[in-house]
Each structure stands twice: as C-alpha cells, then as structure tokens.
Design the sequence.
C-alpha cells in the first residue's frame, strides 16, 4: 500500500509539472499545445546529450534542457502562434498549428537521435529500503526536485510581478492591457515558461526512464488527460490532475497487473464517465 | 489654456459600420466632462479610441499637446490615462489586493505605490474590509469601487470612466458619484465620464456632450444641459 502511494506521488509530481506547462500556455493564449510531449522529449534528448554523451554535470544538463526549450517556446510563440492568432479568429487554426509543430518536432528528433531508446548513467545509486517501501534514491531525488519546482512556480505566479501580469492576462486580456501589460511580451514569456517546464521534466526523467523519439505523442495524451481531470487553465487543477493521474497509474499497475496491460484502458473509461458528469474537470475556471 | 485631451473630428469603424462619424470632444485640466447618449451612440467607442484599444480611421487625438492616436494601450497608460472599462472587468480570480497592484503595474516606486494603496483604501473602506477576498465574488457596487481604485493606482492625470453606475445598487450609485467628485477634486485628476444615467452625470460634471449615432448632437455646460428641453426629452426621461 505505502509502496503504491510512494510510486503515485513520484509519478504525480512529474505529471503535475508537465500539466502546469500545458495549462499555463492554454490559460494565456487559449492554445492547446499538442506539441507539449514533444517538448518534453526534446528536453530529454538535450540532457541525454549533455549529461550522457558530453559527461557534464546533470544540473548543467537540466539547465540546458530548460533554456533550450524556453528559447524554442519563445520562438514558436513569436513566429508561429502569434501570427496565426492575429490572422485567424478560429480556434482550430492554432490547434492545427500545434499539431503540425508536434509532427515536425517528432520528425526532427527522429532524424537527429534515431529511434533507439536512450539512457544515461544513474545520477545517484542506492535504494531506500524500509519495511514497507522500497524506492531508489534517484527517484526520490527526482520527485523532490519536481515538487520543489512546482512550489517555485506557484510562488512565482502568485507573488512576482510577471506572475501577476500573466494571471491578469489569463483572466482578462483587455483589462490587463489597460493596466499597461504588454500582451505580446507576456504571452511569449508564458509560452517560454510552459515549454521550459516540459523540457526540464524531460531532462529529469531521462535519468530514470530514458527517452526515445516516439514517446512525445503518448506524453501529450497524458498531459491532456491531467488537464481534463483538473480543469483547463487552472494551476490547482493541473497539480490535482497530475497527482490523480500518477496515483491512478500507480494503483492500476499494482492491482490490475494480472489482467494484462489494461491500466490506461481503465483510466480512459473512468475519465469518459467523469467528463460526462463534469465536463470542466474538477476546478474548471480560468486561472486562479 | 490648451486642452488636456483633444479629440478632433474622429471617425471610427467596426469593419464597415461606423461608430463615430466626425466626433470632437475636449477635456481641460481639472474638469469633469460627461458623455451621454443612448445605447450604441458611440460613447464607449470614444474611450476605446483614446486608450488605443481601437484604431481610428481619421481625425486625431491629442493628449498634452501630443498626438496619441496609433499608440498601443499599454503605452497610453504610461502616459497618464487610465480607463475603467465598461462592465467593470475586475480580475475575478485575484484578490482585491492583487487587482489593485495590477493597477500600479506600470509603476516601480514602491513607496509611492504603497501611498496610492492607502489613498484608495481610505477612499473606499469596503475594499479594505475585503482586501483578501477574490474580486469575482464581490457585489457589483464593490467591484465598481475596485476598478475605480485600480485605475487610480496608476496615478493618472486623466481618468476615463465607462458607465460606473451600471449594475450598481441605487444606494451605491450616490456613493460612487460622490467618489468621482472627490477624486476629481483631491487627486487632481481630470475625468471623462460616460454614463447612461444622464442625470447623475450632468449633476457631477462641468461640461457635457450628448451623442446620437456617432455624432455630437449637443454640448455645453452641464447645468445648461440639465435644463435644456431637448435633453430633458431625449436623455432625462424618467425621474431620478
Ligand atoms: N466590437 C464591435 N464590433 C462591431 N460593432 C461594434 C463593436 N462595438 C461596438 N459596435 C457598434 O458600434 C456602435 C457604437 O458602440 P459603442 O459601444 O461605442 O456604444 P455606446 O454608446 O457605448 O453604447 P452602450 O450605451 O450600449 O454602451 C454600436 O452601433 C455598436 O453596435
Ligand atoms: Mg458603452
């Protein structure tokens, strides 16, 4: 039991961080970023290259993952999404653009890194063993780092000036503009921040599960699941959705094992019922 | 004396439909000027043009002697023009405090911001009581006080108010009218007030313009307009 909870928390922290980035981009720009999983994978490959290949410290690799993705996110906002939003009022335009970006990133990564599963040396070895819980130290470390980052993100959004500006922008674009917020600049910062979160989680997890160029799509799907559970555009919803999905996965893997690989089948079924009752998720409302 | 704001022969279109067809309006330093007129007359369009939310097609807008048409809204705020938009538009999931801090977004003088905060809270004690409450959960009148306070946090020289009495309980309308007078007097802010409640607007303003379908139909001192037969007939219909 404790083992299941520990696994769920560890997974949930990663997931929440992924969902936070996705929901931030959605809240600020009304863009469903289908390429979120691909950004995660790219972050993984950056860490793989810098830590695994070039043998630089893991922290350096993580920072590079974050910075690379922040730059890519900023460029995507400035040159792709901003132009499309300006020219088209239809929401599906940005969705199609996001989907195209996802395919493009998939193709680029396949070309650069091949289709093999890539792993890196363990960041720390050893296993924590108590009577009821067995957890490798590296998972504990990664989980703790993820939780610290969630906390830092929330503090930033809640108490910093740019954080406040982004919340304002998400709640009322015109009113934010009237307060003097440079809408384009903060949309770009928000997109960069969301992409950065995806990249950092990708970098963190490469040390545990490795990375391969095909997992972008599935990660995006998981990210959307979390946002659907918690409610789109809400910080609390993303975090709740992340931990709920992590917990469900952990419980599913522990209890449904003998029936085969049906955990996600069960999760999808549950989610469909849940969404038909609460289409806005647990806390559906714009940014809180 | 030169006008603080000079809105000259402005035309404004939404796609192919005009909203303003050659409108001229002036606000002098220290004045409260009212814009009255029926639904769709173009009152809000004037404010949107001043703040840069909407481009004008022709004419010009001058503020402190400089042309400001074509300048982006976030720059206009920095020049000292703050707007309280139609339908209030508080940031609903932010606290009263954070809403007010957003009002001071363009400023970086910590001590000055603190001073403005105290001034606003003294002027609207209700906001002090609700300091940590989510703005979206407050009453219409409280939200109206909040958005006026939020606009003051930028320390503007010109305050644009779009229907501050709309959706506010009748008892509070008087309070808000009094606040506007006090703000104009104490904070040295000139006010351009858009109102459907023409009687209230004419009572608290120095001068007024009456709009009909994108044109200025009448203008003059507010006391003149209050007793003008045509105004009585067109805009003052019921008793207040
Ligand atoms: N976004 C828009 N798109 C198209 N037409 C618009 C838009 N906003 C306003 N209009 C039109 O422009 C005209 C003037 O509108 P405006 O909002 O300035 O009027 P108003 O005097 O403020 O009216 P109200 O008292 O109802 O607020 C109206 O005919 C209105 O229908
Ligand atoms: Mg209006």
Sequence:
């Amino acid at each position: 039991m404790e083992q299941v909870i520990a696994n769920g928390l560890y997974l949930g922290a990663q997931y929440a961080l992924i969902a936070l980035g996705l929901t931030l981009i959605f809240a600020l720009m009304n863009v469903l970023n289908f390429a979120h999983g691909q950004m995660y994978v790219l972050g993984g490959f950056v860490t793989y290259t810098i830590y695994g290949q070039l043998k630089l410290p893991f922290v350096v690799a993580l920072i590079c993952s974050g910075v690379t993705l922040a730059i890519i996110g900023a460029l995507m906002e400035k040159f792709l999404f901003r132009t499309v939003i300006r020219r088209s009022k239809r929401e599906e335009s940005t969705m199609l653009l996001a989907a195209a970006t996802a395919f493009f990133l998939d193709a680029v990564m396949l070309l650069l890194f091949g289709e093999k599963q890539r792993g890196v040396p363990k960041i720390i070895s050893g296993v924590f063993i108590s009577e009821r819980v067995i957890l490798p130290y590296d998972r504990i470390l990664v989980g703790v780092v993820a939780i610290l980052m969630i906390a830092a993100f929330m503090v930033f959004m809640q108490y910093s000036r740019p954080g406040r500006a982004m919340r304002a922008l998400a709640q009322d674009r015109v009113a934010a503009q009237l307060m003097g917020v440079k809408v384009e600049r903060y949309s770009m910062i928000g997109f960069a921040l969301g992409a950065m979160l995806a990249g950092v989680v990708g970098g963190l997890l490469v040390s545990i599960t490795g990375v391969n160029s095909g997992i972008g799509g599935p990660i995006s799907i998981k990210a959307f699941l979390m946002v659907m559970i918690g409610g789109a555009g809400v910080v609390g919803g993303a975090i709740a959705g992340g931990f709920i999905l992590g917990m469900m996965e952990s419980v599913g893997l522990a209890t449904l094992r003998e029936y085969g690989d049906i955990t996600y089948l069960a999760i999808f079924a549950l989610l469909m019922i849940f969404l038909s009752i609460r289409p806005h998720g647990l806390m559906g409302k714009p940014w809180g | 004396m030169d006008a603080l704001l000079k809105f000259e022969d402005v035309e404004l279109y939404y796609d192919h439909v005009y909203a303003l067809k050659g409108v001229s309006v002036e606000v002098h330093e220290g004045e409260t000027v009212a814009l009255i007129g029926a639904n769709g007359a173009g009152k809000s369009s004037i404010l949107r043009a001043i703040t840069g939310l909407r481009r004008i097609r022709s004419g010009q807008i001058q503020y402190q002697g400089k042309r400001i048409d074509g300048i982006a809204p976030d720059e206009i705020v920095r020049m000292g023009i703050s707007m309280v938009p139609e339908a209030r538009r508080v940031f609903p999931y932010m606290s009263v405090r954070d809403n007010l801090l957003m009002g001071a977004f363009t400023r970086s003088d910590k001590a000055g911001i603190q001073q403005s905060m105290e001034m606003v809270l003294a002027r609207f004690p209700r906001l002090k009581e609700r300091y940590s409450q989510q703005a979206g959960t407050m009453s219409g009148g409280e939200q109206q006080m909040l958005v006026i306070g939020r606009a003051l946090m930028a320390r503007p020289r010109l305050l644009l108010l779009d229907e501050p009495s709309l959706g506010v309980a009748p008892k509070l309308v008087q309070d808000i009218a009094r606040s506007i007078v006090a703000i104009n007097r104490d904070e040295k802010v000139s006010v351009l007030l858009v109102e459907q409640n023409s009687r209230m607007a004419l009572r608290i303003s120095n001068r007024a313009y009456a709009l009909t379908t994108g044109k200025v139909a009448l203008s003059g001192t507010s006391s003149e307009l209050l007793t003008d037969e045509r105004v009585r007939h067109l805009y003052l219909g019921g008793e207040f």
